[in-house]
Amino acid sequence: MQKKHKNLKEFKQLTKEEREERIIDLKKELIFINIKLKTKQNSSSHIVRKIKTQIAQLYTLQTLGLNNKN
């Protein structure tokens, strides 16, 4: 629970452009992890859930427009 709040505080400090870049980077990472899982390479499946949560948090902040720096 502590980690989620830490990420959320970190995400709130990002500008809109930085948040959009972070979403793109996380989506790319998610694709690569899914490929690794499908090809049965060493990868932790719990990371998928973590990345999806981070993407959802970023989208929520973006939708609500809660950024300190425009």
UniProtKB/TrEMBL annotation:
Gene Ontology CC: one annotated term: chloroplast
Keyword annotations of the record: Chloroplast, Plastid, Ribonucleoprotein, Ribosomal protein
Gene Ontology biological-process annotations: translation
Compartments it resides in: Plastid, Chloroplast
Domain of life where this protein originates: Eukaryota
Annotated signal sequence range: none
Pfam families: Ribosomal_L29
Entry's Gene Ontology molecular function annotations: structural constituent of ribosome
The keyword Chloroplast is assigned to this record: yes
Family listed: Belongs to the universal ribosomal protein uL29 family.
HAMAP family: Ribosomal_uL29
NCBIfam families hit by this protein: L29
Protein name in the entry: Large ribosomal subunit protein uL29c
Species per Swiss-Prot/TrEMBL record: Taenioma perpusillum
